[in-house]
Amino acid sequence: MKKKTISSNEASFSQAINISSLWCKEWSEELLSEEVLADRIKELIKTKNGLRGFFAYTLSDQDCYLLDKLPSSLVFMLTERGEDVVEIVIKNLIMSSAQIISHQRQNRTEYEKLSENISNRCKGILRLLETNLVTKSIKSIMKDLDKLGNSFDNSTKYDDQQKDFIKKQIFDIAN
């Protein structure tokens, strides 16, 4: 097996997605141990592009079960990364939760299921990360929920039904 490493300072968002895909596949085929995978991911997510690319892939790809199984070495490493991980996972929970409502309205059940999967993965991760940090970040984001929205620049705000569902999803973390 050829060594597949990248410099954490050089990975673009697209490269981070591609390398995450490759590593997830190798892990699922038992070509990578959980510990080696966690070490590689630790290097990848040192940068913003690496962090975004890793979660963009692992949250959204239904064939990547890494965030469903959450090996202890991965949880430990994500916990070490702290606030950056908590923030990106909470934001993905909020976005995917709002999208569930949007897809329901449009009768797009396949997309609704994909958003539910992302939301469930986010909740699973948040339940295992450092509780005080998760609680602090959730309180901060919930305070600004009215300012957040469905677009990159937040110009299209979440409606009341979406905000209510987001709150329900966030409260579900404790269950």
Helical element count? 9
Helical content (DSSP H or I, runs of 4+) = over 70%
Binned strand content = under 5%
Summarize the biggest pleated sheet: none
Structure description:
With 175 residues, the chain is mainly alpha-helical. It has 2 domains: 8-81; 83-175, no CATH class. Helices cover 70% and strands 0% of the residues. It contains 9 helices and no strands. Helix 6 packs across helix 9 (160-172). The protein starts with 12 loop residues before the first helix and ends with a helix. The model has no long low-confidence stretch (mean pLDDT 90).
Question: Care to give the gist of this entry?
Answer:
The protein is mostly helical. The protein contains nine helices and no strands. The mean pLDDT is 90.
Q: What is the fold's blueprint, element by element?
A:
Layout: H1 13-28, H2 34-44, H3 48-60, H4 66-69, H5 72-81, H6 83-105, H7 109-128, H8 131-143, H9 160-172
Helix pairs in contact: 1-2, 1-3, 2-5, 6-7, 6-8, 6-9
